Description:
By secondary structure, this protein is an alpha+beta fold. Helices cover 31% and strands 28% of the residues. It contains 2 helices and 9 strands, in the order H-E-E-E-E-E-E-E-E-E-H. Strands 1-9-8-3-4-5 form a 6-stranded mixed beta sheet, with no helix packed on it. A 3-stranded antiparallel beta sheet has the order 2-7-6, covered by helices on one side. Strand 3 (55-65) and strand 4 form a beta hairpin. It is elongated, with a radius of gyration of 31 Å.
Amino acid sequence: MSLGMISFLALCVFFIQVPQGQTGCAEVDSMTEAVAGESFLLGCISCKRREEVPGSAIVDWHFKPAGTEEFIHIFQYEYPYPNIRHENYEGRLEWQGTMGTKDVQIGAIFIHNVTYNDTGTYLCTFHRTLYLLLDEEHVIINKEVELTVVEEANPELTAVISEIMMYVVIVVLQLWMIGVLIYCYRKIYAENEAREARKAARSQNKFIDSKDPCDGVYLE
């Protein structure tokens, strides 16, 4: 699965599954099956309960390999600096979370060049500070992702992606057709207006030409 396709799918999921009362953030689960040798988006979203309350967050990612009991610290994001914390992931992790603000709500990261050693449990932790009117509130949110690495993409997953892409193409084509219809309607309307104006001008000219030259002349 290509990097662009994963990004597009993730964005589709983020924007489609928005619950009532939340217009800019939706908490959805990460995908859990990566393909060896490709890139994979580890999703992690923690929405604030009240968007109007200013805040800041530091995001940490830990990894526990399959068959082990201890987590290792692999990544940290503290606005505006991403920091890879383990040598095994050097050059392979890329921040794909909230950009341009310390009020982070999306803590997703890309794993590039996935290997079978990446199979295991990933722990995403938000260390959030909410700046209330009278005090500060500190909150810690943990989210786990159980990642499995396979040789080829699951056909069912591929079918889901294909179906999503099909609906996206249908929507785009419908919008394009609506745009074409509006353009054609405006063009035809403008042509009709011009035609009616020419008809009116010709009628006025004929009326002037056919007017009785004796009108207004009176015999004494």
